Amino acid sequence: MTESTTATAMPPPVLTSPAAAEGGLLLPELDPWGDAGLLHLPASSTPIQAEPQTLRSFIAEAYPRYGFHRWADVLIELLQQVADGQLSRLIVTCPPRLGKLCAHDTPVPTPDGWRRHGDLQPGDLVFGPDGQPTPVLAVSEEQRATMKVTTTRGEQIWCHPGHQWQVRNRRSRRWETLETRELAAQPLHSGQLGRRGSRFLFQLPLVLPLQYPRQSLPMDPYSLGYWLGNGTAGKPLVTHDRSDLAPVAAMVQAGYAVSAVHHHRGPGYERVQATSLAGLFTRKGHPSPLRSHLLAAGVLHHKHIPEVFLRSALEQRLALLAGLIDSDGTVDAKGRVCFCTTSPELAEGVLDLAEGLGFRPYRTEMPPCTSSSGVVGRKAVITVGFQPTLPIPTRLARKAISRLAPQRRAAIARIDHDPASPRWGRCIQVARADGLYVVGRQLTVTHNSLLVSKLFPAYFLQRYPQLFAAIASYSAELAYAHSREARHFYRVTGHLLARDSAAVGNWLTRQRGGCIAAGVDGPFTGKGYSLGIIDDPYKGPGDAASPALQQKLIDWLRSVWLTRAEPSSVLGPDGREQPNLSAQVVVLTRWDHQDVIGWLYEQELGEAPQQWNVLDLPAIAEDPAERPKLPPTCTLIPDWRQAGEALCPERFPLPELLKIRARLGAYWWAALYQQRPSPASGSIFLRQWIRPPFPREGGSQRHYALLALSCDLSFKGEAESDYCGFCLAGLLAPPARPAIPRSGESQGPQGPKELEIEVLWAARHRFGLPEVIRFLLGCLEALEQQGLRPNAVLIEDAANGPAVLQTLRRRVPGMLPITARGSKETRAHAVAPLVEAGQIRFHHRAQPLVEEAIRFPKGSKDLVDAFCHGALWLEGRYWKAQGIQPLVTPLLVSR
Question: If we measure between CA atoms, which residue out of 84, 75, 13 comes closest to residue 53?
Fold first, then answer.
């Protein structure tokens, strides 16, 4: 930050606590964690820090893997000023996926262990949902994955829009196979998330335990599990309760004889017994069998679950898990299991073990604390919990699994679309009729949502535990995810939550402050906040461009969000007005010029400007004169870069950004990456993009692999009705290879050709139904005489379209109904990058279309819509011809 951007010093704000949340009881003896907060009594046990911790040091402590790039340093400094009371209004606009970091490629479980999905080859073995190995038959070419599917377990899968999913529709109670784009176009849950009766609608198939082959293990699996929990790291010795002799007897039966027994005599340890299983003949030349086996397994002095045990047969893994439960596990009356340890590596192994058994485990972590016996802990306690669906052969009666619960299906929770995703992937074909195989993934993410909506609320409440922070996003689920992470970062830095309220959507500190979260249309009634964060209030371009949804969000801001904010000033003890800590932070990627940022800028021109500080971060720096002008009451944080520099070259270097710009087209590049929601020309198709047909090779005749006649029809043929649009386009075929002399055979198969589409002809007329039928039949007859018979006649299934389809279906082969998805503008944005890249060319007979496209979306839109339908159909057939076929690949197992 430069000196010109640093806010001027101001008196420290007065911190007023909002109305106390419910909780605590007025007991005869004051409850230090409930009633002290309820009565606003100071917490005497909390030390007063002379110097508060900085946000940067808090991030380093809570999330050591965070990447401190230059842009992150600027944002951290601004958020620090918010926490210090020097800034009260902050807007951050930045490109999508800034700073996202993938730690590993998608892992796939195989009988030989975990493999990268991109490394799989034909002949390799993967697992099907029944847990049985199945061979890989084929691997496709790479293709771009632009859609992120999030499941109810928090797993994320990047895939192609045409990727297919086998899901159970809970409304129809039937299994269906749907593409990702089809799932994204419909509601994924019923009701309002977080309320009674709400549920996710599309469930994924269950997965049975993975069937690994039986392994020749270096030691007995039950004995290893019990030693990992109760054993001494460097000795063949286990420590246990005196009455728990069944596990020791099992180890003796496995060949590990007891050599010595020691009873602890200290106060409080009378029931503790240490049993050495070194064997009966331990002398020089005769080493201890247990020690030798532990050494062979590689666990002596290094407690972990070896890979060979994790990939062993089902009964071997169940025996290993039984030993772990008998040592450091607990089983409640409902059969739910919790395994506790302070070793992260051992916890990851137990998580992997339970996952492969189909138990759907979870993992939680508690900061170091003092035990009931007064022992002060120095390590965080990690708990792995699960509900078994198979019998586990535990030896202790109190830890017997009394109840086996049916496995619950995961569901699809959210689908996000990123048309400029840099992720690439491959489809594999497996030897199963349903095409299903098991995958899993593990991501480490650092991006703007992590900093603003997860780390910063935790830091703010660490500074001011008596105040409230509020988080709002386009859905309650996303807001809850941010709040859950904020709660995690608050706890791992050594801060405790109130015992009576730790829900993810409304959790409290011991000082009765806390964090509340909801969707942008959700309830905040009865709740106030000192820090308000709005992160991505729009799900996508459709929401941002919808006038109805725009107005709905503005009404919610006025009636709910802004009314719950604490006042920016209060009266001090001397009766004078003093500043109060009340801050708003808005972070998003611009989708539309009339989004919430545009509305906030309009409000700055009114009677009560909020004086926003704006951090505007285009992906490629521009000259300040080219950037959008802000209202005079707003303060723009100066960009530290020179024009043409990338924002985060460590993640997205300039050459990669230029490739993204070429793929996206001018409209989406200006909006998403440059934070200018409309390009300079104000159009979707630019005149300089229009190019003549592709040059012929040696004057040869043009050959088309596919021809499509697309039609956009109206209801009536009257003067005031819309036009009917007709467009003929063809996909160029690769040139034929010359024949081999004498034999006359071709010189081998032609390699794949780049996508090249030519628009041959376009026309528009005001037609009624009879005129449309006569015109279509005449066009098809004329094309037939010229040797240009269309492979498909595309009729939009609207207006007169159904009637035309019904009338001509028997007379015209290849008639296909086209369902319009989204708006005309949305389809135009999908085709514009192809036109800009020169992959679509125009003949002179398509001039009416060219003139309409340049004016689009103003004026008539019928020709452009007919053209977009045809171009998208030809593009889809091109990719299918290249062998890129989406396979049904739901997420079944996570690592």
Answer: 84
**Rounded-to-integer distance, Cα 154 and Cα 163, Å:** 19
Is there a cis peptide before residue 857, judged by omega within 30 degrees of 0? yes
Burial class (CB in 10 A: 0-12, 13-18, 19+), 650: exposed
**Structural contact between residues 665 and 829, judged by C-beta atoms closer than 8 angstroms:** yes
> Residue 363: phi, psi to the nearest 5?
-135, 130
CB atoms within 10 A of CB 869: 24
Q: What is the C-alpha to C-alpha distance for residues 340 and 311, in angstroms, rounded to an integer?
A: 22
Please choose, from the candidates 447, 685, 418, 657, the residue with its C-alpha nearest in 3D space to the C-alpha of residue 541: 418
Tell me the two tokens of residue 71. 């842009």
pTM of the entire predicted model: 0.47
- Structure token digits, residue 619: 């992906």
Residue 40 clears pLDDT 80, i.e. is over it:
no
DSSP state of 117: G
Query: What do you get for the CA distance between the two ends of the chain, in Å?
Result: 41
Whole-number pLDDT of residue 3? 38
* pLDDT digits 0-9 by tens, 330-375: 999 888 999 999 898 999 899 889 988 888 888 888 877 766 556 6
Give the separation between CA 633 and CA 614, rounded to whole angstroms.
11
Cα–Cα distance for residue pair 39/24, rounded to 1 Å: 10
Do the bridges between strand 583-588 and strand 89-93 make them parallel or antiparallel, or are there none, so unpaired?
Answer: parallel
- List strands edge to edge, sheet with 428-430: 125-127, 133-139, 428-430
Q: Which amino acid does the sequence have at 608?
A: A
φ, ψ at 81 (rounded to 5°): -65, -35
